[in-house]
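[Amino acid chain]
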Amino acid sequence: MKILLAILISALPLSAGPLTPLAQELAKKWPKNRTVTIVFHGHSVPAGYQNAGEVRPFESYPHLFAVALNKAYPNAVVNTIVTAIGGEDSPAGAARFEKDVLTHKPDLIFIDYALNDRRDPLPKVKRAWESMIASAEKHHIPLILITPTGDTHSDLANLADPLTQRANLIRELAAEHHLPLADVSAAWVAKLKSGTPPADLHSQPNHPNLAGNQLAADTIFACFTDATAP
């Protein structure tokens, strides 16, 4: 019931979207436009890792999101920066947040750490995410939180699964802080329930392939579109 409620909340369009000013900036044409900077912060998935350590950045969801953004705003100049590090968890990501993320003076930040956060206790994970949220809020930088892509060793439909628990924590943080939520986990579960074999979305157990990254990018872009609604 908790997951269903969170999914329903995340699916609702946001009135007076928090990213409406950013959409207005993206819609400007030369010479009135400026470079818009978007940062993806997280672990190996946004960094573009796939099978056996091979990195394919142009098949990663940050790049696929940038492609969709360019189609929606063809006159925008967008600098998409990935500050993700393979193997990193949110406590480590929070420790370098100001130095590695805020230094770029981003217009928008995405955060994705849940896959690696399974090795940390939930209270520690919550503190790390809240630290990054507070830091972004202090600098008036909008955030979008991302629930994890799937792992063939996990069951995102099982409330007791550690990955599901961390996805739920991210949902709770988004609701508590009134932040847009890109519920990739919910989209992943729906895709599997529709009959898609897990192997069709994965390059290895904990890394999505191009199709999995596209599913994540589509979900993230849909969240972005809702959050930019006037």
